[in-house]
Specification:
With about 160 residues, the protein is mainly α. The chain has one domain. Helix content is about 80%, strand content about 5%. The protein contains nine helices and two strands, in the order ααααααααββα. The protein has a two-stranded antiparallel sheet. It is flat and about 50 Å long. This is TM2 domain-containing membrane protein YozV.
C-alpha cells in the first residue's frame, strides 16, 4: 500500500517519475518528454511564477491556452498509470473497477478550469490559469470518488 501512495506523490512532483519507480522506464521517459513539451509551449513556469506573485492578469496574458489544455489530462493520466501499475504489483489482483473515475473527473474538471480560467471570477477575485484548474482538479477527485462509491453500490444491487 505504501508504494501506491509513493508513486502518486512522485507523479504529482513530475509526470513520469512514478513510472520510473515502477520500473516502466520507456513510459516514464515519454511522460517526462510530453510534460516538458507542454510546459514549454504553454509557458507554464512563467505563468506559475506570476500566479504565485498574485499577478493574475499577467499570468493570463502569458498563457498559451491551446497547449495548457493538454496538461491536466497528461498529468492525471500519468498519476493514474503509475498508481494502476503499483496496485497490480503490490496487490497482485485487478484494480477495483471504478477507481479510475477519480482521475477522469479530476482531469475533466481541471481542463474545464483551464478553459474558464481567464474569465471566471468569484466575489471579484480572479484565480487565473494555475489556481482555478487546481481547485477544479481537487473538486474532480472528490466528485469522482463519490461517483465511484455510487457506481459500486449500484453494481452490488444489480448482481
Amino acid at each position: 500500500m505504501k508504494k501506491r501512495y509513493e508513486v502518486i506523490l512522485w507523479s504529482i512532483a513530475l509526470p513520469g517519475f512514478g513510472q520510473f519507480l515502477n520500473g516502466k522506464y520507456v513510459k516514464g521517459i515519454v511522460f517526462i518528454l510530453l510534460e516538458f513539451v507542454i510546459n514549454v509551449k504553454a509557458n507554464l513556469n512563467t505563468v506559475i511564477i506570476f500566479s504565485f506573485l498574485g499577478q493574475i492578469d499577467e499570468a493570463i496574458q502569458q498563457t498559451d491556452y491551446q497547449w495548457l489544455m493538454f496538461y491536466p489530462c497528461l498529468y492525471l493520466f500519468a498519476i493514474w498509470d503509475a498508481y494502476r501499475d503499483a496496485y497490480r504489483d503490490t496487490v497482485k489482483e485487478p484494480v477495483p473497477p471504478f477507481i479510475f473515475l477519480r482521475f477522469v473527473m479530476a482531469a475533466f474538471l481541471g481542463t474545464v478550469g483551464v478553459v474558464y480560467s481567464s474569465i471566471f471570477t468569484l466575489f471579484g477575485m480572479r484565480f487565473g490559469p494555475v489556481w482555478l484548474p487546481i481547485i477544479c482538479l481537487i473538486l474532480g477527485v472528490f466528485l469522482g470518488y463519490f461517483i465511484e462509491i455510487w457506481m459500486e453500490r449500484k453494481q452490488i444491487k444489480l448482481s
